[in-house]
Amino acid sequence: MRPLLEISNLDHAFVSGSQFVPVLKSVSLHLLPAEFILLSGPSGCGKTTLLTLVGGMRSIQNGSIKLFGTELLGANQASRNMHRGLIGMIFQSHHLISFLTAEENIVLAMDASVQIRRTMEGKRRRARELLAQLGLAEKIHSLPKQLSGGQRQRVAIARALACDPKLLIADEPTASLDAENGRLIMELLRELVDTQGLSILMTSHDQRLYCYADKIIKIDDGCLLDS
Amino acid sequence: MSQRNSWWKQSKIPIAWLLLARFRVKLFTALIGIVFASILLHAQLGLRSALFESSISIFKTFNADIVVISKVAVGSTSLQSFDRNRLVIFDRYPEVVDTTPVRYDFVRWRYAGSRESRLAIMLGFDPRLRIFNQEDILKNQSTLLLPGRILYDELSRREFGPVKKDFEKPKPLFAFVNDQRARISGLVKLGTSFSYDASFLTSLSTFELLSDNKTDYIEIGLVKLFPGTDAVSFLRRIQANLPSDVQAYTLQDFLDFEKGYWDRSKPIGFIFAFNAVLGFTVGMLILYQILYTDVSNHLSDFSTMLALAFTYKRIRLIVFQESLFLAVIGYPIGVFGSVLLFEFISSVTGLPVRMSTDRVLICFLIVLLMSSCSALMAMRKLDDANPIEVFE
């Protein structure tokens, strides 16, 4: 099976003063369709940096990332932006747009994608479907401040799924939630992998979440340790 | 065609509009800024226009093709007397129908019953001739054939006495001009200006009677040409033969000469223009501050949009659209406020401060420019929006 995501010998360093501080060292991994990989490691180990590189938010310094068969090394901002539209993203905090309703936040994600060509009514219909699927049918007109933490994160998941992505990257999506809401979110993500064939690359240092992933990859000091 | 169809069928969340509509206090404050700037712009440009219009309000009604004034005059406030025989030279030319003198002087005016004297403009002309192209003057000028009669400008400031109101009463009205009694035999509409607050018309003989300046000298000479004569080429032809102590203009050039005097020789024209620039700057800074604060407050939202694959160009467009919405909503309110302000100024001062279509359009373009400049400056804050921040 051809991987959706292929990372090979990826190095990345940040500049601190006059020094280069390496954060990723020769990282390689493959993510197959309908696979759930959990990157685990302590804070500052480089897992979030890896997600931002996959998400096309940083340019690749050395190594290779192939996303849907396209090499991101050397890709310009516009090209990386286009690829970002193909990926669903969930962040540690919900990062919903504060002045938009749940429905509008999801429509906005479709507005951002150059691949989505739906009318406004079509986008709204899709947003309502997703919210209903995630148990938020009655919250479509609620602003983020009117939602609980768990509800906000579910809206964020709905937003990530709005453009029918094949790949979801999630940066500690349960970190800001209580245990019960965290469990519900993880069950939902697992269900998306099993029923919709979604691939997920997720970071977390919470060992209780290991049971939801197909593969656990530990990362420490910028190096993948084992899987 | 199908591409066009797909274009209008697709629409996007109106983020710029929602950023305004869902924050009423900000919207209200920003609109106040736009309205304030619009009113300031209109007021300054309106007063500047009134300055020019009022300076020629009497002269533009002259029924003449050429206006002759003293060589040393730089504007109506500095009209000097010259020998009335200077007009004789024009009579030599076959293109000239006739020439006629007009007297012009500042005089002390005191309305009967009042103790206070004020300076007013007195214009003397031959009431047997059609000197003015104005209906109310033509209708009343025959009353000036009697000595000691004057036609009072009903648009004069109210401090000069309740003449208009009293004129409705069936009793003769009198005023004292340079302490000599004159009877008000009719009302006309001439209008005030920035150099005088009241004016009246009289005959040449009464002018000499009432004026301290009783000579054979005049301040303005009017020349009427036969129909079809080109006043510009006529003037060019006779210019060299004109006496050295007078200058002659076509009527339009004389009006421009007078406007130019107020524009270039007096500071007030510049002050109004400067105030308009000030209004533009203040409005721009107010709007910039509001937009900048808005961008700062929503920086994390803009970072999220970038993470969702919005481009910097697109989020800059949101700020630009916000500024345009504010201009489009705020400007009509500003125009309405300006109309009310003009009504007020006009009723108090008698100045011709009016709203004009071309000024409405020009000010709208200025307000659009002002909003765009504010947005361009506020957009720089968007450089701080970073999609990576949503992962931190």
How would you portray this structure in words?
The complex is a heterodimer of chains A (227) and B (392). By secondary structure, chain A is of the alpha/beta class. Chain A is built from six helices and ten strands; from the N terminus they run βββαββαβαααβαβββ. Chain A is 32% helix and 27% strand. Chain A has a six-stranded mixed beta sheet. Chain A has a four-stranded antiparallel beta sheet with strand order 2-1-4-5, covered by helices on one side. In chain A, a hairpin with a 2-residue loop joins strand 9 and strand 10 (223-224). In chain A, helix 3 crosses helix 4 and helix 3 packs parallel to helix 5. The relative contact order of chain A is 0.20. Chain B has helices at residues 2-9, 15-21, 24-55, 88-91, 135-140, 163-167, 204-210, 231-238, 251-265, 267-297, 299-307, 312-349, 357-379, and strands at 66-70, 82-83, 96-111, 118-125, 149-153, 173-177, 180-188, 199-203, 217-218, 220-225, 246-250. The radius of gyration of chain B is 30 Å and the shape is elongated. Chain B is an alpha+beta fold and 392 residues long. The two termini of chain B are 46 Å apart.
Topology:
The complex is a heterodimer of chains A (227) and B (392).
Chain A: E1 5-16, E2 19-31, E3 36-40, H1 47-54, E4 62-67, E5 70-71, H2 77-84, E6 87-90, H3 102-112, H4 120-133, H5 149-161, E7 167-171, H6 179-196, E8 199-204, E9 215-220, E10 223-224
Parallel strand pairs in A: 3-8, 3-9, 6-7, 7-8
Antiparallel strand pairs in A: 1-2, 1-4, 4-5, 9-10
Chain B: H1 2-9, H2 15-21, H3 24-55, E1 66-70, E2 82-83, H4 88-91, E3 96-111, E4 118-125, H5 135-140, E5 149-153, H6 163-167, E6 173-177, E7 180-188, E8 199-203, H7 204-210, E9 217-218, E10 220-225, H8 231-238, E11 246-250, H9 251-265, H10 267-297, H11 299-307, H12 312-349, H13 357-379
Parallel strand pairs in B: 4-8, 5-7
Antiparallel strand pairs in B: 1-10, 1-11, 2-9, 3-4, 3-6, 3-10, 5-8, 6-7
Helix pairs in contact in B: 2-12, 3-9, 3-10, 3-12, 3-13, 9-10, 10-13, 12-13
